[in-house]
Amino acid sequence: MRSEEFDLKLKNLPDSPGCYLMKSQGQVIYVGKAKNLKNRVRQYFQSSRGHTPKVLAMVERVDDFDIVLVDGELEALALELNLIKRYKPKYNILLKDDKHFPYIRIDPREDFPRVELVRRQTNDGAKYFGPYQGATAVREVLDVVRMVFPIRTCKRAIRPDKPERPCVHHQVGQCLAPCAGLVSREEYHALLDRVMEFLRGHEQPVLRELRERMMQASRELNYERAAVYRDRIQAVEAVMQKQKAISTSPNDQDAIAVVPEGPDAVVEMLFVRSGRLIGSENYILEGAGADAPGEALSQFMLQYYDSENIPPHEILLSADPPERDVLEQLLSELHGKRTYILAPRRGDKRNLTRMAEKNARDLAEKRRKKLSRSRERTLGALEELQAALGLPALPRRIEGYDISNTQGALSVGSMVVMVDGISAKKEYRHFRIKTVEGANDFASMHEVLTRRLSHGLRERESGEKGRFSTFPDLILIDGGRGQLNAAQDAMHGLGLDIPMFGLAKRIEEIVLPDREDSLLLDRRSNALQLLQRLRDEAHRFAITHHRALRGRHSVSSQLDSIPGVGEKRRRAILLRFKTVEALKNASTEEIAQAVPKKVAEAVYRFLHSDD
What we know:
- The chain is α+β, with helices and mostly antiparallel strands.
- It folds into five domains: 4-95, 3-Layer(aba) Sandwich (GIY-YIG endonuclease), CATH 3.40.1440; 104-239, no CATH class; 253-365, Nucleotidyltransferase, domain 5, CATH 3.30.420; 397-548, UvrC, RNAse H endonuclease domain (Nucleotidyltransferase, domain 5, 2-Layer Sandwich), CATH 3.30.420; 560-607, DNA polymerase, domain 1.
- 45% of the residues lie in helices and 18% in strands.
- It contains 19 helices and 18 strands.
- The strands form four sheets. Strands 12, 13, 14, 15, 16, 17 and 18 form a seven-stranded mixed β-sheet that branches.
- The longest helix has 43 residues, at 347-389.
- 32% of the residues are buried.
């Protein structure tokens, strides 16, 4: 069952073209494109009628989605292609081929270049125009080029010293016949310049000429010819849209925009590589909402382009940063390559930053709405919880506890924290059970609460602001009456009295220390959902740590049998390789980074003795 947040996200989709990324447990499982994101994405979840089994299976797994807004269908298609290449989503298998968008290629270095369709761009010095949405669209453009500009498209080898007989294209006025020596190189290249201007998007002169020819044909009552010109005009208008999401420029670019959002700022990045928009990313700059946009961008770049993130050839910004030259020099020296920082005011580069701004504004608005809804829902949940449990104050800080073990071995306890309904992960803690033998969840819970609260009391007595000095307003115990009683005994033994309850999974009943009967909240209540999230998080945190311990214990057990591997070397190997599988997949050289080479070879031989 999807969350209320998912439904609200679905409800607030924009009526804009773009790409959507369907996610399952944080992984992109499908990428699609749409003229209207609202209509397309909602279709998946409103009705299953007409869905293929593959789509039904995909929809069943989706628990989240992201969108990227673009300016047109061609941009959405190109972005979809690159996102699929990047993420390789499970449900885009039909698009996983070696298909490429076609381009028009012209090599002006030749004496009489031809205009040709190619499937790939290569760094061969030629001029490339596109990409186009399919070979049919390119051929339509080539037809228009041939009709308006009598440029050659054949593969004949042109030899001025051996003129040939002109072909039929010359006879119908679609080629100047350089093969026959009927045009000079200078005249041909002057015509070629007009062709390239047209292909760069300056189509209005051509459209004017086509319209004049269409009107002339109509005046002559040659309606069939006029219809041909009409179709040509429509073809030109369809395929000669200016492209911002895809560029034939060889330069790699990052387009970055910043939009203030309350006390923070939203940063949107568009990544253009080898002329293709391969994806986007967004970030929140905490506390940067009041800063000038240029200053916020400067701070973001300094943090983002560290040793892990290498800047591209050009960084395009929505606002000019202060001391741009210094920043440029710093990034260039830091990464050993020249980087240019630009704040374009017009042209394709400005269009890229506008697209980034559009996405940033959309994200900022969604974040505002989400935060507002979250605050209202969380406050309502806390107030509901206070009333249901009869608490003296609003439970701003709630701690959740759980125990995990395997048949009593490697028992661990977990402590997770919510502050104002939001997970405070920096406050999470693990406890290795030290005093309990075997599988005894009650005694283990008693130990965990005793240790946590004792730590807190000691820190408070010493005046230290430590990891445990802040006590909760409410404690949640994952379990029923037995676990709750054990936790209560631990707390009372230390002279403390903090509101505490248990949450049993079977029917989600709340177990209270002063009531024999359980408390049942409405399954749809925000209060219960908040408690379920906290309980499930405590369980996840405990079991994840337990599995890690179990993996390390398994590695340690295997290492015990290897000659030359003592406690110190075993610890070094455990530190580097957490599981047996990781250790088995490692090479001798990789193991030798943790221990001497001879020991590494012995470990490798032992682990692979059965291979």
